[in-house]
Write a structure and sequence with these properties.
By secondary structure, this protein is mainly alpha-helical. Helices cover about 85% and strands about 0% of the residues. It contains six helices and no strands. Helix 1 packs antiparallel against helix 3.
Length: about 140
């Protein structure tokens, strides 16, 4: 019965870590690219677009969004380290890093090339770290 609960806990941590890593890095990168897009649109000659951008997207708000998402990522890494250990915190960080190329190509609307497929395949490594943390922890 104890092994069964350990397996369920491992599967739950893997699922939650994958969900958290994907969403946190997605919010952070999209906030960064939104700021770049808005700065690009501010340099256009179209007056209605400039007025709309100035009304709805002040620079301070976008900088605060990026800072907020960065602080959320750091807080999640700290909490994972504190409650689950170093292996799971590193797994969270690796999941975020391996998601970056796929996310950036998705934002730019490009198809994923073979290099990004390799990095997506490497996203299984953090899951092995979580299994190592629960089953073979030193």
């Amino acid at each position: 019965m104890n092994i069964f609960l350990l397996i369920l806990k491992t599967i739950g941590v893997i699922a939650f870590t994958t969900l958290l890593a994907t969403n946190l890095i997605g919010l952070f990168v999209r906030a960064l690219y939104q700021r770049e897009l808005i700065n690009h649109l501010r340099n256009t000659d179209d007056v209605p677009i400039k007025e709309m951008i100035d009304d709805f997207a002040p620079k301070k708000r976008l900088s605060l969004m990026v800072l907020l998402f960065l602080m959320l990522i750091l807080a999640a890494l700290f909490l994972y380290y504190k409650y689950f250990g170093i292996y799971v915190a590193v797994a969270l960080l690796l999941m975020m890093m391996f998601r970056l190329p796929d996310l950036i190509s998705d934002i730019h609307g490009k198809k994923i090339d073979k290099k990004n497929y390799t990095l997506t395949f490497l996203a299984w490594i953090p899951m092995l770290l979580i299994v190592w943390n629960y089953f073979f922890k030193l």
